[in-house]
Amino acid sequence: MKELRKLATPYKWFMILLVAIPVLIMTVLSFSKTSGVDFTNIRFTLENFSKLGQSVYLEAIVNSLTLAGVATLICLVIGYPIAYIIANLQTDKKWLILVLLISPMWSNMLLRIIAWEQLFKPNSILNSLGISLDLIGTRLAVVIGMVSIYLPFMIFPIYTVLDKMDKSLLEASRDLGANKLQVFTKVVFPLSLSGIISGIIMTLLPSATAFALPLRLGGGKILLIGNVIENMFKKVYNYNLGSLLSIMVIVLIFASMGIVNRDKGSLI
Amino acid sequence: MAEKLIELKNLTKRFDDNLVVDRISLDIYKNQFITLLGPSGCGKTTILRMIAGFEEITDGQIYFEGKDLTKIPANEREINTVFQNYALFPHLNVYENIAFGLRLKKLDQSEISDRVARSLSMVKLIGYGKRSIEALSGGQQQRVALARAIVNRPKVLLLDEPLSALDLKLRQDMQYEIKDMQHQLGITFIFVTHDQEEALTMSDRIVVLNEGKILQTGSPEDVYNEPVNRFVASFIGESNIIPGIYCGNRVVEFFKARFDCVDDHFETGEKVDVVIRPEDFEVVVVQEGKITGKVADIVFKGVHYELCVMANGQELIVHTLKSPNIGDIIGLKVDKFEIHLMKVS
């Protein structure tokens, strides 16, 4: 074990330098008033918190959570059956299907977002099919973008759990009198909850904090928390409020993970 | 004879080109403890899985109380299984695991709790209902698996090598307990194992299988004392197999001597295999034994000594309470009832 622990050393320093220290700096910035990251005239204050109540920030947070929530729900509804079908395929070519599923992730995410943006404009390649969409700036466009980009993150954890599931458990439930639907509702689904939860976390969090996606597909009309934070750092230069909002998002994420994990405990 | 419960007729199973079960016909009776015994890959588990309904049959029929069982899906058969790896539901506690089948039948809460409690007491796990499965030892999981199956009051209980994961002491205790349970419940147990000792201890009837075929069916005494061929003789217990010639009139010749025997269904002059169990030799002084041999090795086994005796160029295993020295020349005597003749296979 000690030998293995040494191997983690670079990772440990990587995490300290690129995660722990920045988060620490952001925490300090949240509780103070500075000009940029210049700490010479630092003044500790809680005035950043008083700005949180402003409607623009609240709206961004509500937007983020509702749009990401809807996208995650759709991902689950589409992703679970796909994962289930692949896991139950009687073939040794499963890897090929899985590779096809992740292959879009090999192209740049920004590129895929721009591709959707082009399709959602009234004048697009779809015109040749007699279709003209005008979706830029709608919530629908943002949700479609989120689903298309984060769907694999929902499928994979669920697939992994279903594929590893001990088949004798399914036989045991048949043996005890369960019909096919009952095998699913009483054994397969409850045992795949851990995969569902991982999938939800892995889709909900990146969608809720996305900023390029709402920027392009939302046409600047739909503001998510990621966009507000980006503006704070790049346009308004209010690093203090930007840091505070970022920290709030982190806290929100950990809180939701905590709730989900607690519920998982009672469900299983 | 007891009432027939399950009838296998020319039961056959192929996996692709691999013939796993080859035209097996077998009657299984009510309230019987029957063991399918054979080495791994002999098809015993596949037969069990076909009876349970987890495996489609390739050819042949299975009748259950006279009805074609293959038309009934696994979940509607009055048969329950104890799986080799127990297959307990990790997301349910002990109580809910056992109640699983009863809840599917939509029984009253009071009846469910009553029956779960009774089956927990039968497997000696009273008070374990609220435990999680992970918190149990292998032996306790085994008991929960048994309780989960018997609580449904099946007509047949299938047991697929249920004791193979337990240590020796626990395995021996469970052998008696399972046998006891079968007596109490009065239902048919079909037990699959590769362990001949387990089969001899527990069974009313043993079916010896190899390469998808039934070699011998009979009581433990029959199978032990009268093995039909070399495979059965060497698979069940230790045995000495000596080539001989049947001389007619219940006399057999081997090791250049003639012995009286009790088998007579052979032709005069026919080559036979003679089976003598190690414990059936009597060690005597050279003058008194028809067989003479030199002690090549001696191992103390607790109750007895195990001798390796070289006689007429063949190694014989002999169990005895005496302890001669290595190199001693000894005589061996065999009672005529202990000489068993088999057709040469």
Distance between the termini of chain A: 32 Å
Structural class estimated from helices and strands of chain A: mainly alpha
> From N to C, what is the helix and strand string of chain A?
HHEEHHHHHHHHHH
Radius of gyration of chain B: 24 Å
**Oligomer classification:** heterodimer
Q: If classified by CATH, what would the architecture of chain A be?
A: Orthogonal Bundle
> Uncertain runs of chain B with pLDDT below 50, 5 residues or more?
none
The CATH class assignment of chain A is: Mainly Alpha
Radius of gyration of chain A, in angstroms, nearest whole number: 22 Å
Count of strand segments of chain B: 20
Fraction of residues in β-strands of chain A: under 5%
Instruction: List SSEs of chain B in N-to-C order.
Output: EEEHEEEHHHEHEHEEHHEEEEEEEEEE
Across the major sheet of chain B, the strand order is 6-7-8-3-9-10
Superfamily (CATH H level) name of chain A: MetI-like
Largest sheet of chain A: 2 strands, antiparallel
Task: Explain the overall architecture.
The complex is a heterodimer of chains A (268) and B (345). Chain A is mainly alpha-helical and 268 residues long. In chain A, 74% of the residues lie in helices and 4% in strands. Chain A has one domain (55-267): MetI-like fold (Orthogonal Bundle). Chain A is built from twelve helices and two strands. Chain A is globular and about 70 Å long. The two termini of chain A are 32 Å apart. The model of chain A has no long low-confidence stretch (mean pLDDT 88). With 345 residues, chain B is an alpha+beta fold. Chain B folds into two domains: 4-230, P-loop containing nucleotide triphosphate hydrolases (Rossmann fold), CATH 3.40.50.300; 238-343, Beta Barrel (OB fold (Dihydrolipoamide Acetyltransferase, E2P)), CATH 2.40.50. Chain B has helices at 44-52, 94-104, 109-122, 138-150, 168-185, 196-202, 220-225, 230-235; strands spanning 4-15, 18-29, 33-37, 59-64, 67-68, 79-82, 156-160, 188-193, 205-210, 213-218, 240-248, 251-254, 257-260, 271-276, 281-284, 291-300, 305-311, 314-320, 329-334, 340-343. Chain B has a six-stranded mixed sheet, sandwiched between helices. A five-stranded antiparallel sheet of chain B has the order 13-12-11-14-20. In chain B, helix 2 (94-104) crosses helix 3.
